[in-house]
Design goal:
Layout: H1 16-30, H2 39-51, H3 58-66, H4 82-104, H5 123-128, H6 132-137, H7 148-160, H8 171-187, H9 210-233
Helix pairs in contact: 2-4, 2-7, 2-9, 7-8, 8-9
Length: 267
Amino acid sequence: MTSETTQVAPESALDVEHFDELDTILDDLRMRDDEIPQWEFCEGFLAALVCCRRELVPAEYLPVLLGFDPAGACGSSVFADTAQFERFMTLWTRRMNEVATALNTPIEALDDERAYQPEVMDLRGAIAALTPEQRAEMGDAPIPSFGQIWAIGFMYAVENWPEEWEPPRDREAAKVINAALECIVTLTEDDTAEPTVGAFEQDGVPTMSEQRLNDFADALWAVYDLREVWRHIGPRVETVFRVETPGRNDACSCGSGKKYKKCCGAN
C-alpha cells in the first residue's frame, strides 16, 4: 500500500486491457477453484484494504480472498505457476496504489477525473443488450444490482478484520465511520425500484433506479470518509502488560516450589 504522500504516475494506471487481463487470470483460477470471485468483488475488497485502519499485507489477505498461501508452494495454490501469481500481484499492486492515490486526493465532485472510480459492471445493461435467445440461455439466475458485488466485496474485508473497523472512542469519528459503513451496506442490497436511469449512459436503456444512483454516490463518498478518518486516527496501539519478575529469593512464579534464583532465574 502506498503512503499518504506517494503519488502514482499516470502511465501506471490500469487500462481496459489490464482489467481484461485480471479477468482472464481470475477465470483461469476459477477452473481450479469455483469459489474464486469476480474482479468487481476483488475491487471492493481492495478498496476496503486501502481504507483499513491497519495496513494488511498479502500474507494476511490473499488466503481470505483467494484461498492462496503466499508462503506455500505455488503448485499447491490456485495459481497455475509463479509467473501467473507474480503478474496478478503486479496488476493488483498497481491498482491498489492507484486507488490509494485517488482517495488521498481532495476532490469536490465524483466526476473529477482524479476521483476514485470503482471498476464495476452494469450487468443488467449488458444482459438487456443480449438477444432473446441468449437471455433464455441464462435461465432465472438473479442479476446483481449495480455496484452490489463491489459493496459485498468491501464488506467481506470489513467482516474478516472486525477489530480494525471497531469505532474509536472519539464520538464524532465513530459516528462518521458507522454512517459510512451503513452507506456501503445499503449498496449490498438489491435495487428493487423501477429502473429509470442508465448506469453509464444518460440516454441508454434504464438499468437502475434514481435511488440506486444516489446510493452508489453515497457509498463512494463513504469510502473517502473512511480513508480520511483512519488516516487521522492512525493504527491501534497495542497495550503492553509488564510482568513483575520475582525477587531472587522469592518463590519462582512457575510453581515449582523452588526459589527463583534456583529455578527460572538461574537461566
